[in-house]
Design brief:
The chain has about 220 residues and is of the alpha/beta class. Helices cover about 50% and strands about 15% of the residues. A six-stranded parallel sheet has the order 3-2-1-4-5-6, with helices on both faces. It is globular.
């Protein structure tokens, strides 16, 4: 999936041309995908290696999916009831495991500078599967909230968050761009006819093996 100079220039032009950029967080702004993988592994370790491996594979293949959609499924695989109180209990444990890890995770190279400088005077909106209150805590700790005109976390669905923003701001989909690293990000963009740009990394190479659209590994190349 490596880009030649022509593709890189094209990707750069696509990014700069967007008046509004929708950003995913994990794997796009912070290299925090593995933080959440390790948390799911730790959470389900008591249920044995087969359950852990099934959870890990599903999580990596569905990176943009909310934990509250994943946990009922994983609890069923673990032979536990997926009632609301248990899902909430496991969700809280997961949040405690990942919060500081995400804050301390490395930045995707070049992205912090791009967000803070906003050289092209673009409007940025953050759209993440992380719960809203947890997302707000992370942004506060990173002093990053001021970079975004809007912030959407779970339970907001990504496609709904994009649709709401387009309607509220009177935006044309073709003037926008969604940057993500998961199928859920691509599907949310496609549902709203918004162009998509992939941030690829080792975890999503297989998931996007058939992807041929604009992509990048880090912002230092853009």
């Amino acid at each position: 999936m490596a880009m030649d100079n022509k593709c890189r220039a094209s990707t750069d032009e696509i990014l700069r041309a967007a008046s509004t950029v929708f950003w995913d967080f994990d794997g796009v702004i912070k290299d925090s995908v593995e933080v959440k993988t390790r948390a799911f592994v730790k959470l389900f370790q008591p249920f044995g290696p087969m359950v852990v491996e099934r959870v890990r594979k599903h999580h990596e293949a569905h990176g943009g999916m909310s934990r509250f959609d994943k946990l009922p499924l994983y609890l069923q695989w673990a032979g536990r009831g997926a009632n609301p109180s248990r899902v909430s209990e496991f969700g809280n444990q997961f949040g405690e495991l990942v919060l500081q890890g995400v804050i301390e995770a490395p930045w995707v190279p070049g992205v912090e500078s791009y967000l803070r400088s906003n050289t092209h005077q673009q409007t940025f909106a953050l759209i993440s599967a992380t719960p809203q209150d947890e997302l707000e805590q992370i942004l506060y700790a990173l002093d990053l909230k001021g970079c975004f005109a809007a912030v959407f976390g779970a339970p907001n669905r990504k496609k709904d968050a994009i649709r709401t923003t387009l309607a509220a701001r009177g935006l044309a989909p073709n003037d926008c761009l969604m940057i993500g690293d998961a199928r859920a990000d691509l599907e949310a963009a496609e549902a709203n006819q918004v162009p998509f740009m992939l941030r690829w990394h080792e975890t999503n190479l297989n998931v996007f093996a058939d992807y041929t659209g604009p992509s990048f590994k880090d912002f230092t190349a853009l």
